[in-house]
Amino acid sequence: MLSRLAENLFWMGRYVERAENTARLLDVNYHATLEAPKWFPVRWEPLLRITTSQESYFEHFPEVTPYSVPVWLAIHPSNSSSIRGCITAARENARSLRDQLPSEMWESINREYFKLGFANQELINEDGLHSYCITAREASHLFFGIAEGTLPRDEGWLYLQAGRTLERADSVLRMLAEYYQDIPTHASHQVEIQNHHWMAVLKSVSAYEAYRKEYQSRLDPARIAAFLLQSHTFPRSVLHNLQTLKHLLEELADITQHNSREISRKLGWLIAQLDYGVPMASLMSGDTHMLRGMADTLWKISDDMGRLYFLARYA
Amino acid sequence: MPAVSFTHQAFNEVYSTPDQVRAHYHVLMDQLSRLGVQEFERRAGLSDLSFRNQGITFTVYGDAQGTERTIPFDMLPRIIQAQEWQVLEDGLKQRVKAINLFLQDLYGPQRILKDRKVPFELIHSSPNFRREMFGIQVPYGVYTHVVGSDLIRDEQGNYRVLEDNLRCPSGVSYVLANRTAMTRIFPRLFRQYRVRPVQHYTTALLELLHSLSPRHIEEPTIVVLTPGIYNSAYFEHAFLAQQMGVELVEGRDLLVSEGKVYMRTTHGRKQVDVIYRRIDDDFLDPAAFKPDSALGVPGLMQAVRAGNVALANAPGAGIADDKAVYPYVPEMIRYYLTEEPILDNVETFSGAKGQDLMYMLEHAQQLVFKPVGESGGYGMLIGPQASKQEVQDYLLKVKANPRNFIAQPTISLSVHPSYYKDSGTFEPCHIDLRPFILVGQETTIIPGGLTRVALKRGSLVVNSSQGGGSKDTWVLEDDELPLQHTMLEAPVAFPDPEDHLPDLALEAIRMAQEAQQQ
């Protein structure tokens, strides 16, 4: 397979998954603000940090408001990681893969692009944010669903899935790092605040119902962290995605006969840490070093993949 | 049935007089009239949406919106009768044969120049003459493998060749997409007419490319070379690659090493044998042509010279579709084939000839001027529609560089009704026809081609970049007229669903209906 196309498939998987994650995060946070009691401090800065776009945000807006952050994350033309930006980039990648993708896949992303790629600020004035976020989420489900049903299970499939799982693990790690850094400890209303907060965290990963099924107890931050990091069964947990990624990369190494030992080593170490080494107590006291370190390692793995499969073009 | 308007100034493809439909259009017009405007528009809406969702688009350069657009699709098909088509097919085959002999001659002994049938100066002053191709042996002596010649019909209904596109003619993907759309929207009409199929084009193209491979191996590597997703015809490049099952590559995916072309894959290098290139000569190889081009492959010409890779179409083929060379094609047919041309050219004045130039300058207001190097309808002057000032300004350019211009009398292209949503009627629009000709060991032409429609009211320009649209083109199997009514039209007894549904389902339907009414 052409290196350029492999790279496009990988990034297409990342972009579509990222649009979905941002949509979920945004939708949950936006609606948390609507139902929140007056004393509940709904904050928007964490979303900027989770999506690593706070610096560019402040180049365009002087302050953080419940209006400007959603605009920024959903549709702002200067934010390439906005939902709109991701869908546009994914469609651009799909366009360069048109001869490779089943036409149903291309048509789905193309159709969703027409729905999502041209929204402007009216979206928020007209109360359209929720349906926008749902459309983005479903666009991703449809896209990967069609891929599941029609894309041949060859190299291309592996790159697409690798991009998707890597992005998913990365986004959960960054979200947890953000929310555990600063566990709310407001004295009065503590239980309500905690519940409100942790429900939002779980819902941002669509994990609320799954968590409830697993633990019929109160929303316990340590258990939530354990669930989102280590669950073997929940499809958005970090561990689940890293294990999937490991299998995908092993298959790729087999097919292409590349030496990917360095990638395997890094991934294996991440998985071992998750399985055996998460220091829950320090996490509960707000030490998120380990999570951030893991997110950094994931970026390095993405880089390594680029060098191995996309850039090393045997020129 | 939407109303139809009529014009006397041009040949009408459908009507012989304002109320007389030509025989082969009877059934079509009759069927459409039964549909009614509302149903017609519903079907038109479906086709628009389908084209958009499939991303069947072209990109308009320099458009403020900078967007991909769908080519407007006109649902009224053009019908060409069997015998009429046979003449066109023979004429086109004759033409491409002569053109290829001309190219072989030009890049070889240059007999035609020595015999002074074509001026030496004209060839050597053309930027489309590629000295790099001199003396290179191309398979079967064929330089232009994929040809899209533009045909028009004049006021008398005679077909004439307006120009030949010998480099990277576009549009065939729309022929195939339009056909797919039409068979979905009007399946019954296809049953009534016997329309010759077109979908074998991509198979024929693949076989042709296969036959050009310099390595005689079971599965040579064939690729389609595109400038990338921002090119106006990118959809077509991707479509053709996909339909042939070959790789769609950009210049950066290829490299030349020791006179061979390779593509860069995740498994390492893979040798490429045949390139169907959709990049102009200028951008093919920065080492041979434009040094600042990032689209091509450095060293590609060296691989061509070494005979390790075949290009379709060959570089340098453009010399024969230079608009200043076009007037000589009938002469080439006589010279190389000793036959009379079956299809006529449009009368053409060339700025390169002193006498012609005089005439062009004096009669500018009655002529259409075209720069020889442009395509896509850019840079033209349509004398009768231009103001005095516009003509004067344009003539300054002509005087400054006469070799660069040709002029033709304004021919009123034939018209065909097309549907206009704003008026709700069929109005006559000027059309042309671009058949696609594949030249290898044999020559294949798919029946019909792309009928382009000048949808801007009163416009004579059919190019998609100038707001033109297209319609499906039907070549009939034989000239027997289709049956007015077929068995298939007989009403079929259809049971009332309410008779067969259990009560629960009925209840659900009623509730849904009520909910809808509220």
Automatic annotation (TrEMBL), chain A:
Coiled-coil regions listed in the entry: none
Pfam families per the UniProt record, alphabetical: Alpha-E
InterPro entries reported for this sequence: ATP-dep_Glu-Cys_Ligase-2 (IPR051680), DUF403 (IPR007296)
Source organism, top-level taxon: Bacteria
Start and end residues of each DUF403 domain: 1-310
Record protein name field: DUF403 domain-containing protein
Native species: Deinococcus cellulosilyticus (strain DSM 18568 / NBRC 106333 / KACC 11606 / 5516J-15)
UniProtKB/TrEMBL annotation, chain B:
Alphabetized Pfam families for the sequence: CP_ATPgrasp_2
InterPro entries (UniProt xref): ATP-dep_Glu-Cys_Ligase-2, CP_ATPgrasp_2, UCP005522
Domain Circularly permuted ATP-grasp type: 77-454
Protein name, entry field: Circularly permuted ATP-grasp type 2 domain-containing protein
Lineage: Bacteria, Thermotogati, Deinococcota, Deinococci, Deinococcales
